[in-house]
Structures are given as C-alpha cells and as structure tokens.
Amino acid sequence: MTIPPVQLPSWPLLGCGVGLRTNHFEKILTDRPLLPAVDWFEATTENFMNSGGRPLWVLEQVRRNYPIVLHGVSLSIGSVDPLNSEYLARWKALVDRIDPAMVSDHLCWASVENKNYHDLLPLPFTEEALRHIVERVGQAQDFLGRRILLENVSSYISYKHSAMTEWDFLAEVSRRSGCGILLDINNIYVNAVNHGFSPQDFLRGVPAEAVGYCHLAGHTHMGKWLFDTHSRPVIEPVWDLYRDALALFGKKSTLVEWDEEIPEWDRLAAEAARAREIYLAAPDRSSERVLRRREAPSHNDGGMTLAEVQRWMRRRIYPEQTECPPDLPQDDGLGAVEFNLQGGDPGEERLGVYAGGYAARLTESMKEVYEAVAHVLGESMFAHVAEAYAATRPSTHFDLGLCGRGFSDFLKTARVTEKLPFLPELALLEWRVAEAFHAFDRAALDPAALAGFAPEDWERLVFKFQPSAALMKAAWPVTDIWRARNTPIEEFDLEIANRPQNVLIYRSGFKVGCVALEPEEFRVLEGLKAGRTLGSVCEELAATLPDSGDGEGPVIPLEVWFGRWAGLGLFTSANLEAPHDTANSLLR
Q1: pLDDT tens, 284-335?
Q2: Which end of the chain has fewer beta carbons closer than 10 Å to its terminal beta carbon, N or C?
C-alpha cells in the first residue's frame, strides 16, 4: 500500500525557552523583559484547561509578551480507548483562547478501560500500533484544526515483539499523519542507556523537517538505569547530543524542562542561556526543508495486540485497582508481555518504576489541595493515607487535579479519623476552596442594578451565584483549623470541641476566602443558592425568630447582609421570578 504524501508542517523558530511554573509567576510578570536568556514559555495544557482563576489569567498575561507553546500530558494518543471528547473540547477551547505557537503531547498511552494512570507509558513499536496512532492523530488534528507535535518519551521497558526501532516508529507516525516531532534530547539519551542503542542512530533516523522543537532536561542515575526526573541540570553528554542534533537539523526552538525540585529563577535562566549559546551557533537550514520519502518498515507483527498489551500492563502495574473484565480473566491464557533485558536484568523488574507512579503523582497533587490536612497529619502520615486513597480510587478523569475529590468521603472510614474526627470536614472545606480557586467566575452583579426594582418586587427576586461560591455546614471549626495550616503544630492551640460552623466559601478577585456565618445569614444564603425567592426565604426565617417587640415582627438585617455579599461579589445577576403558569400550577 502506498502512503500518500502529507503536507509539510512549518514550525516557527522561537529561540530558547523554559517551562511556565507557579514558582516563577511573579518574576515573569514583574521583571519583563527576560531576554536574552528566555525567549518563550511552554505551559502544561492540563494546568490551565480546567482553571478559570489566577493560573489562566497569568497565562494570558504571559502570552501578551511572549510566545506560548501548549504541552499536554493526557491526550493518551496511543490508548485503545476512544479519544476523550471532554478533553478534546477543553483542549480546543484553550488553544483557541491562547493561540499558541505550537501544540504538543506525548507519543505514549496513559489510560485504558476508562482508567487514567497519569503516566507516559511506552508503546510496542508495531505496525498495528502505528496505524492506530496515525488514525488518532488525524482525529485530533481535524478537531483542533491545526497540526500537533508528539514527543518521544523516556521508557524503562521495551517489548520483545516490537518490529522497528523507536526512531523509525516516530518518523513513520510523523510521515503518515503529518504531525510534527517534539524531540526530547534527554529522553533519547536516557533510552539509549536504558535500552542499549546509539543515540546518534536515533538522531540520524529522525526527519529533520518534522522536528518542531527540542526538549532538554536533567535525569537521575539509578545505578543500572536512568530515570527521567526533570529535577537536575542537563548533564554534559546531553548538551553534546543537543549540539549534534542542531548540527544535523539546523536551528530548532528549544525548551529547558525543570519540573521537580525547581530552582530559583536565575539558575533556570542560566540553563536556558547555555542552550541559547548552542542554538545561536547552529546552522540555519530552513532553506533546505525537503520532505524526504521513507519506506515503511517491512515486517509482520507478532505477539500481543495493542489492546492486550495495555490490559495486561494495567493488571500488572495497578493490581489493587483492577476489576478483571469478563473477556480477559486473570488467567487469561494470552501469556505475558515479553520484555527485553534492561541493563542486564529482566525487563519485568522495571515494571515497578511505573507501578508506584500513579500513587506518587496523586499524593503530590493532593498535597497542593489538602494543605491543612497534610499539616495536621504530618508529611509521612499524609503520604501513607494518600497512597491508601490512590490504591482504592482509580482515576477516571484526564485532570490529575480532580482525582482527589473523593478524599473527604475516604477519610470518613479511615482509621486516622478516629483520633482526628474533624478531618473529613476539613478535607471537604479544602476541596471547596480548590474548586473556588479554579472556578470560571463571571462579572459580579452591580449593586446599583438592584435599585431598579420596585420595593414590592424584592420579594420575587431570584439571585444567581458565582460558580466559586459554596456553602457547607460543619460540626467543627474548620475555618479556624484551615487558617492555622501554617502554624507549627507545637504552637497549635485551638479549642475545637462543640464549635460547629456554617461556612461561606467565596473568591474575591483571585483570593479565596472562608467565613463562618451566623445561622440566620447562612439560612438565607442557603435558600437563595437553592434558587428560591428572597421573599420565601425571609418568610421562612422570620417564622423561627422572636418578635422585635415593637409590633414590626422579627428583625432581619438584610441591608447589612447584602452589603457584605455585594462586597464579596457573590452574585452575578438578580431577576424577578418568572410568572407561574396556572395550568401547570394546578397539575403540581
């Protein structure tokens, strides 16, 4: 079969950039320009596609001054599951909003049977996998209306039934689908050591015209193998490999990754500046861009199918989360995936690298949300509880940040709650705070708009709340515990018994706050949030309050409350209740 030619992508030359990380937000926003060390930024797609708060605002501010590339981790282009329609929709919305210079993800799989492991799991390099990925790349590119780039990933296992090299597989995906290549130089080096091939062979096997940009990063030496941690400076052999790559390909936009143990800005900028020196010394081969025809490797696939590999891997790597599907019993009769030797050891021994990955990543993500819970429990105990949660709560969503949403319910039955009974409610408060932080709020209601309603119409008013606004009843003083999350435990002196709280969670600008309300004010807000009219809520409250003694009935300080609510920007609109349909009212 002849593979038709595809349109040659054209990728911009951006210079040298770094990843956009929260640690450096203030520096980037206040110290513009950052040239000559940093020309552009790469933003992790998933960190912004579900956030309508400060992260998205920062991204938009940075985009006004620098080129942005969106780099995803959850497309799971190699999975046998269908592409996630919600992910695609949110992805496209962010791409359309930011208009990035390039859009990329990873050549791997991360999910199967609707379970997401938030990892970059390696593929077998077979013709079946190749056809599958090319088809899915076409779907993704058609949906976005633009070409994407796929990154070669680091790996710690390789499959015996792979029928081609990693670089041949990568090149064929690009040639058949028209997608670009995000060439990770560090990953080439890591895989060359882990799997015993020449990194120069990899470079020579990559079509120069398909490379959109390069990644540089540090890794950790584990003895017999290398682990791609992004927690260290780039080592000299990787710098040398980067020079070789640009000598072959010409100038390519370059990004320095540093995602763990992130250093101060000046240290990261110095790494980018070193990349820039090599980049500027490289030849400019833009005039030599020719789409080279490559013959598809001639072979027959053998071994397990892609679906069988992914299901087998799921059961072996994440056994606690596995509910064995009826068509694939535990003694499935399919045999086992066979791996090549890794550093002289059986490849199966490297499966453990992936086995602990989901729990570790989820624990780190939950630490960002559950600061107060982690503070109370201590780092070690929190990690233990979070890992137990991860073992019983597989992720079904592409956003790792949403995987901790059931933690409050989990804590209700956890042994640690026997001594700390307030933990479930504290966790629920922190989850609501996180939701408020990322909510897509709208313009607040202008209090002057309420002046347009006649006094007799106020009873029929119905209010719409900001998406960030939330209410919760707690048996414990959770707002006080939450505010003390940075107080050393030995200084923690808080009376918590018999102190229930009615809590309002809100966001004012980008700042999330929590306030304990008196029961009466809470009841009114609770009724309004349920969509009831102001009149019905106040009438119900008045029936429970003592008379003021002056014949005017109970005193409800609505004016005071509304002043506070307006100051917090709780409402987005106020409208008169729609007239009831008489016929429908009779039916009810």
Answers
A1: 865 444 444 445 455 556 678 999 999 998 888 876 554 444 344 444 454 6
A2: N
pLDDT digits (tens, 9 = 90+) for 464-481: 999 999 999 999 999 999
Collect all residues with Cβ–Cβ distance below 8 Å to 329 and sequence separation of at least 6.
Answer: none
Angstrom distance (rounded) from CA 522 to CA 453: 24
Chain segment 351-373, per-residue pLDDT in tens: 888 887 888 899 999 999 999 99
pLDDT digits (tens, 9 = 90+) for 212-254: 999 999 999 998 899 999 999 999 999 999 999 999 999 999 9
Identify the pLDDT of residue 324.
43
- Separation in Å, CA 213 to CA 34, 41, 105, 280: 20, 12, 12, 14
Q: Residue 327 has which token pair?
A: 């068509």
Neighbours of 560 (CB within 10 A): 10
| Spatial separation of the C-alpha atoms in residues 75 and 78, rounded to whole Å | 9
Q: Does the bond joining 124 to the residue before it have cis omega, within 30 degrees of 0? A: no
CA–CA distance, 39 with 351 (Å, rounded to integer) = 38
The span from the CA of 520 to the CA of 526, in Å, is: 10
Q: How far apart are CA 304 and CA 128, in angstroms?
A: 10
Question: What angle, 0 to 180 degrees and rounded to 10, lies between the N-to-C axes of helices 127-144 and 85-98?
Answer: 50
Token readout for 254 is 């370059």
Could you give the CA distance from residue 334 to residue 354 in angstroms, rounded to a whole number? 22
Residue type, 571: F
Strands (E), 411-563: 461-465, 470-474, 501-508, 511-517
Q: Which long-range contacts (CB under 8 A, 24 or more apart) does 292-298 make?
A: 292/207, 292/209, 293/5, 294/171, 294/172, 294/175, 294/207, 296/3, 296/127, 296/172, 297/127, 297/163, 297/164, 297/168, 297/172
Claim: this prediction has a pTM higher than 0.70: yes
* C-alpha distances in Å from residue 103, one per residue of 145, 176, 353, 356: 11, 18, 28, 29
Task: Give the separation between CA 483 and CA 496, rounded to whole angstroms.
Answer: 13
* Helix-then-strand count for the chain, H and E: 22, 17
